[in-house]
Amino acid sequence: MSTMTREETEALIAEVLEVYPDKAKKDRTKHLAANDVSVEQSKKCITSNRKSLPGVMTIRGCAYAGSKGVVWGPIKDMIHISHGPVGCGQYSRAGRRNYYVGTTGVDTFGTMNFTSDFQEKDIVFGGDKKLAKLIEEIEQLFPLHKGISVQSECPIGLIGDDIESVSKKASAAIEKPVIPVRCEGFRGVSQSLGHHIANDAIRDWVLDKRDGVTADSTPYDVAIIGDYNIGGDAWATRILLEEMGLRVVAQWSGDGTIAEMMNTPKVKLNLLHCYRSMNYISRHMEEKYGIPYLEYNFFGPTKIIESCRKIAAFFDDTVKEKTEAMIAHYQPMMDAIVAKYKPRLQGKKVMLYVGGLRPRHVIGAYEDLGMEVIGTGYEFAHNDDYDRTIKEMGDATLLYDDVTGFELEEFVKRLKPDMVGSGIKEKYIFQKMGIPLRQMHSWDYSGPYHGYDGFAIFARDMDIALSNPTFKNLVPPWKKVEAEDVKKAA
Amino acid sequence: MANIMIRQGEKGLTFYLPKRDLEASIESIEFDSPEKWGGELKLDNGGSYYIDPIAKPPRLPISLRAKRLGAAED
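^ inputs. structure came back:
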């Protein structure tokens, strides 16, 4: 059903790579591929999770971004100290729209920036004293916080500060958890390692703190893992799960609290949305506490129904009945949305380039609207993500891993999609090229996109982007006249 | 020696190497009986690892120490 044959896709890749020097070309070839649905093992067609080439533009982030920005940041009742120079924290502050309920600055701290603001003297003499003082001040100024995490920036690892010992001492003094996270930005090739480090910190410092303490539980307890509540996503998810008769005990980590996290080992099933960033903790809980985990997908009605039935299969008949009732209840609403937008969006082509999960998860939602995804790629996915992607994508479609600015631009120029789904860094380039773009990281300041409620918004947003009259007026009037004259003359 | 985790997947056993974030399915396991379980693991990505044979674990996943046989695979 793809518009290009395998040979054409391969020729396109070769053509785009033509400008690189031989060595770079050899390296980049491994990261670009035409999808082959018959392949079971992604490593046979695409290489991922490798260091980006020096000299090309990459969109990747760092380990600190993965830990502080993604995993730890949304935990709302903790204070996350950006330990190091001020910039890392300040320029990433409140950018990810992890919505939460609470009074910021009193009992929740999601959008605030706490930093130790390293100066030259701290680099020379070490910043441990400053960190200890900072924690003391936090305790005094924000007594309602439930814990502190120390998110290291690059210099901490370089100068060898012992944040673990400071954290242990401070934790004993304030009688709240203080968690050192060794997520210095230079670690790893992308933010992906930051997720792993953050997960390991949760495992070592948070998860086992309430082992042996009994909490009231029901047989229907579940935890939402890897939903960061961007634009309210986790809430839209939660509504559905509760309608299915499940009890959501914890949200990791959008709108989540540290108490919820400590209670998670008592749930019956972990529901894993962002596999890339939180599979580590799910694997750990499966081994240590025997809690199975289940990957699910709440983008678009087809995938929602599939996922809900898969989740319900873990529970008894009452949940299954409620699930079917819920699906039946929402079906007319979904039919109405599809009836409204499908005629407008049918056959439109989309190219995606997002982080570690959405390049495959949103395909179903686009297909529900009759759109076709002709190219997809991840910033920081690993082989296991591509294993899962190959099955979702059509044969001979384009796959790109850690695509460079140049390559993505060229691919878009040649494939001419009707729309691109990517991030802020790509947005204005493509809009100036005359192609509508929706940010698939932050939902372009809209959202939620998860769940049934989210699909309505998703469909509307895609229609807004594609039907925007601006893109018909990219040629200024004086040039338009000329073009018409030429046509007349000819 | 590396820490690995063996898990029951949908289609069979899967192998996970946390250090390298490597997930692969296990194509064959040398010993697979209640008393003796382990030995050489052949992975579908071409790699093979060796775990000391143990009694079959009552519950998966399980973390074990494994030795890599042959060259590192991608």
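Chain B touches chain A through 14 residues (CB under 8 Å). The CA atoms of residues 24 and 48 of chain B lie 11 Å apart.
thumbs up if we can close this ticket
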